[in-house]
Structure formats: C-alpha cells, structure tokens
C-alpha cells in the first residue's frame, strides 16, 4: 500500500456508498450463482472422485458466503503456488485483518475472486474450471440481434476502409473529418457495450456519417457522456499515423467483460487495423475467472469458435429446449467475415493476446511501476492504452474518494503526466469514484431522480452515465 495515494478509499462500511450495497446484496448473489453452476456441473459427473472433489469446492464456496453474510474477518488465502498469494496476505495483515463489512471495497472484491480461484487451483480435478463460463456464452448468444446488426455494418465499413473507395474525390480535410466521426462512432459503440443503441449503427459509411452525427439517437447517447476526450485521443492517433506512416503503431486494450462486450472490443480493434489507425492491437485479458464476466484467454477462443459456425451457435437449443430461427445466408456470411478477418489478424501477429498476472492483483495501477515494472515499460511502447470498464477505472484511481473535480491525470498518479503512457479510459459509471467533472456537475446529477441528493452519489451506480478520459503521458 506504500505506493497508493493518500486519498481514502471507499469502504464496505459506508452506507452511503455502492461499496456497502455490493458487499451486502451483490456478492452473496454472485457466490450463490457460482455454487449453483458448480452443483449443476457436478451432477453430470460420472467419476465419483471428481464429483467428491467438486462437492468439496461447493462447501468452501458456501463457507465463504456464510462468512461474508455474517461479517466474519477475511482469512488469509491458501497458497496455490502463484506468486500473488503472499502479496494478498501481506496486505490483509497490513489492513488489520478486517471484516467483510468494514474493509476497502477494491481490496475485498479482488480478494473474493482470488479466494474463489484457490478452491479450484488446489483441487485435483477442477483446475481451470470457470464457474462463470456458462453465463458468459449464454449472454453472448442472447445478444444475437446486436451481433448480426454490427457484423453487417462492420463488414461494409472494413471493406470500404481497406479499399480506399470511400476517400475518392474528397479533400484531405473531408477524409479526416469523416475518419474522426467514424472513430468516435466506433469508440462509443465500444464504450456502451451491450447498452449500445443499435439505432446508432444505421449509416456507418463515409457518405452518411454526417447524418449519423446529427441523429437524435446519437445525441441522446452523447449527452450521457459527461467527460468526453475522444477528440484528443483521435488527434494523437492521427499524429502518430502521419509521423510513423511506415512504422509500428501499437494500441493496447486492457479488456473488461467477455461475450458481447469483447465482441465490440474486437469490432473496434478490427476497425483500427482496417483503417490504418493502428498496425498492431494487443489485448490484455485476465489470467483467471474474475469479476464474473471479465475476459480470460479461453473466452477469446470461445468467442471466435462460436463465430466460425454462427448457424450452429445461434440456433442450438438452450437448456429449456427453446429453438431459434435459422440465420439468413447473408447473416452467416457477415459473421464469418469477422471470424476470418480477426483470425487472420491474430495469425499475422496484428491481434495479440497477452495476459499478465498483474491484472488480477489486489491493488491499484499506481503500483504498476513498482510491482510490475516490465509491464509498465511494455505499455510505453504503445501509442495508446485503452482501459475498458468500471473496474479498470477504479484501479486507475485507486477507487478513492477524490473530489469529482480532481483532474483525471492527477487521480491516476504514476500512470499520468510524464509516465510515457497514453491512457484512455472508457467507463460507464457503476461505482462512486469519478473525476474530471466540471465544477457543479456532480451536484447537478445528484439532484436528478434517483441521483442520491446530498446523501450519496447514486447517479454513478447505474451505468446510465459514462466518462471517456484521456491523459497523454508522452507529452
């Protein structure tokens, strides 16, 4: 904790914080879901020893749920052979062996998922099992209409970008303006994930982009982005393209959720490569099941496998034996275009999967230069590092009680100015911490229905509002 900022963190004991709601309401439900998933899988096992092993893990999950609900102290993690266990336990002791309902929210939430992993890692037959995998793919399957719509639009866009036909007859200024708007569109799709309003996607072409910019749907979405630094990020990437036209221009994406959100992350990655805004995309997944739906390397391969034969994936009967209508021939072709393009990018070394153990440590990213210096140095090689989602934002800012007018570059400490790293954070707000707001904005949002008033920052809990925050650490 020696490298963390001095600003206090949000605590599970604070009734005005979403930390308290998470500990009392959300975490027991997550553990119950994990128990139910494993119980369901154990029921299909014919090997008695494996079934017994699985039932032992269920008992451990139930014990942790009991401790959580009855506000017992967090206990040291069992050593499963990974190097991070000592760090978790050292910090637990430094925090005074706290109880579940009176502890720093960020530490306790990471501890919860890391402790779950030890149950499987220390088992004989269940190493690598992901209690969230079934839920992840089910959610992706339920996103069928959005996937098909995006696949159609993306295929048109990628083919236009690669052929250059959309730039014919246009001045350099017109081409750049169109590219700026397309970049903004693709980033907003990526920002909102499965909350994306598909009415935004009706005209993703160079010709119609001006109409799209003026659409009511886009305006409605944009007004909920209360900090929006996309223009600054685009200028940075354009400058890199001009100055390093024939050189390496890498973009990193520190991933958040799997399923449809990973799909839209890949849409953005594919667009950046097709449009020549990047030459390489490095994706950073988690090395173990994390925060229910975070991407693991297997989730990436599962997603691509589902797209290799979309007809089979999207028409397979579910657990209730519900059947689904077949895809049209063009829908199959559009999804397979994405599969083939992304697989080729991956094969050519342009789309790289690079997990690192740091992403599942318990601390904030202020610690990265000290506890993962090789990762910190590697990120300096990137033109832009995109941090996706609420957890990454919380870790960038140490999930601390900053004044909301605190500049983003201040709140991210060693990841900010003169770090050598350009940080772009995409985040729909689902936690109390928020920075970079204009004076008075937090107070105004608190006065909205369910905004929390003077007692809490409830407006920041729902995911309705978003921030896109940029810090140029290479300046």
UniProtKB/TrEMBL annotation:
Keywords associated with the record:
Coiled coil, Hydrolase, Manganese, Metal-binding
Query: Coiled coil located at which positions?
Result: 230-257
**Does the keyword field hold Manganese?**
yes
Cofactor(s) required, per the database record:
Mn(2+); Ni(2+)
The EC number(s) attached to this protein equal 3.1.3.-
A GO molecular function assigned to this protein is: metal ion binding
According to its UniProt entry, the protein's GO biological process terms are: DNA damage response
- Catalytic activity reported: beta-D-fructose 6-phosphate = dihydroxyacetone + D-glyceraldehyde 3-phosphate; beta-D-fructose 1-phosphate + H2O = D-fructose + phosphate
* Entry superkingdom: Eukaryota
Class of the enzyme per the UniProt entry, highest EC level: hydrolase
- What's written under domain? Subfamily III proteins have a conserved RTxK motif about 40-50 residues from the C-terminus; the threonine may be replaced by serine or cysteine.
Role noted for this protein: Metal-dependent phosphatase that shows phosphatase activity against several substrates, including fructose-1-phosphate and fructose-6-phosphate. Its preference for fructose-1-phosphate, a strong glycating agent that causes DNA damage rather than a canonical yeast metabolite, suggests a damage-control function in hexose phosphate metabolism.
To which protein family does this belong?
Answer: Belongs to the damage-control phosphatase family. Sugar phosphate phosphatase III subfamily.
What name is this protein filed under? Sugar phosphate phosphatase
């Amino acid at each position: 904790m020696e490298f963390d900022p001095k600003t206090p963190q949000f605590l599970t004991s604070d009734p005005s914080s979403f930390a308290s709601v998470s500990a009392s309401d959300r975490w027991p439900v997550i553990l119950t879901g994990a128990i139910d998933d494993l119980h369901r899988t154990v029921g299909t096992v014919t090997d008695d020893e494996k079934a017994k092993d699985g039932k032992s893990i269920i008992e451990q999950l139930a014990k942790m749920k009991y401790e959580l609900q009855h506000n017992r102290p967090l206990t040291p993690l069992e050593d499963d052979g990974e190097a991070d266990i000592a760090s978790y336990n050292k910090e637990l002791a430094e925090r005074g062996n706290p109880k579940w309902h009176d502890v720093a929210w960020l530490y306790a939430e990471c501890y919860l998922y890391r402790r779950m992993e030890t149950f499987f890692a220390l088992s004989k037959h269940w190493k690598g099992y992901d209690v969230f995998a079934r839920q992840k793919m089910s959610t992706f399957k339920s996103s069928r209409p959005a996937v098909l719509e995006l696949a159609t639009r993306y295929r048109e866009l990628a083919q236009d970008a690669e052929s250059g036909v959309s730039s014919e007859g246009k001045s350099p200024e017109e081409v750049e303006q169109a590219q700026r708007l397309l970049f903004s569109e693709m980033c907003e799709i990526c920002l909102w994930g499965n909350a994306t309003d598909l009415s935004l996607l009706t005209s993703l072409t160079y010709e119609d982009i001006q109409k799209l910019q003026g659409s009511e749907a886009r305006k409605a979405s944009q007004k909920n982005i209360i900090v929006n630094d996309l223009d600054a990020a685009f200028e940075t990437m354009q400058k890199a393209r001009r100055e390093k036209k024939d050189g390496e221009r890498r973009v990193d994406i520190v991933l958040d959720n799997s399923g449809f959100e990973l799909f839209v992350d890949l849409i953005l990655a594919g667009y950046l490569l097709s449009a020549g805004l990047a030459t390489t995309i490095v994706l950073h997944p988690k090395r173990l099941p994390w925060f229910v739906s975070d991407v693991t390397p297997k989730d990436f391969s599962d997603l691509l496998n589902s797209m290799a034969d979309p007809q089979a994936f999207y028409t397979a009967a579910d657990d209730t034996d519900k059947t689904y209508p077949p895809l049209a021939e063009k829908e199959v072709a559009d999804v397979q275009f994405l599969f083939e393009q992304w697989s080729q990018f991956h094969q050519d070394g342009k789309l790289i999967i690079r997990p690192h153990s740091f992403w599942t440590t318990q601390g904030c990213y202020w610690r990265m230069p000290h506890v993962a210096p090789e990762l910190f140095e590697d990120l300096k090689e990137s033109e832009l590092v995109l941090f996706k989602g609420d957890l990454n934002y919380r870790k960038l800012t140490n999930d601390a009680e900053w004044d909301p007018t605190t500049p983003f570059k201040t709140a991210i400490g060693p990841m900010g100015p003169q770090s050598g790293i350009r940080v772009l954070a995409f985040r729909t707000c689902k936690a109390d911490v928020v920075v970079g707001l204009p004076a008075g904005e937090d107070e105004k949002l608190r006065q909205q229905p369910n905004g929390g008033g003077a007692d809490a920052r409830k407006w920041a809990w729902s995911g309705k509002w978003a921030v896109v925050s940029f810090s140029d650490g290479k300046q």
